[in-house]
Queue: 2 jobs
Job 1
Amino acid sequence: MFNQAYTMNCPPYPNGRPNLECLCNDVNFFNGIGDCAFRACYTQDAENTLGLAVIYCTDRR
């Protein structure tokens, strides 16, 4: 998913890492995670993936 992040008008940080501040405020980022997870996983796993994305964006350490 982060490879796709570089195409979402969220330039990476100077060290090359994805710009979470920008991505986590972009509904398309979460939609992309959801689309990818529900295509590749069972429903429960996809829901868990979305939950982890929310946690990841809430606690950006």
Note: DSSP finds four helices and no strands in the chain.
Job 2
Amino acid sequence: MNTNIDKYWNKFIKEQNIEQNIGYKEHFYFGNNKKLANNLANLVMIGVKKATSS
């Protein structure tokens, strides 16, 4: 994992009093293919898409 992300995450969980063994995902994308992911990411960037669910 990325050292900067680890530092950020560890600082966050300490400040928020969150259980220390809770991890994070490095990345994810919307949709199930590259084209859809790019289209949905564009909607996020322009402010149209603001949430997701599973």
Note: Residues 3-15 form the longest helix (13 residues).
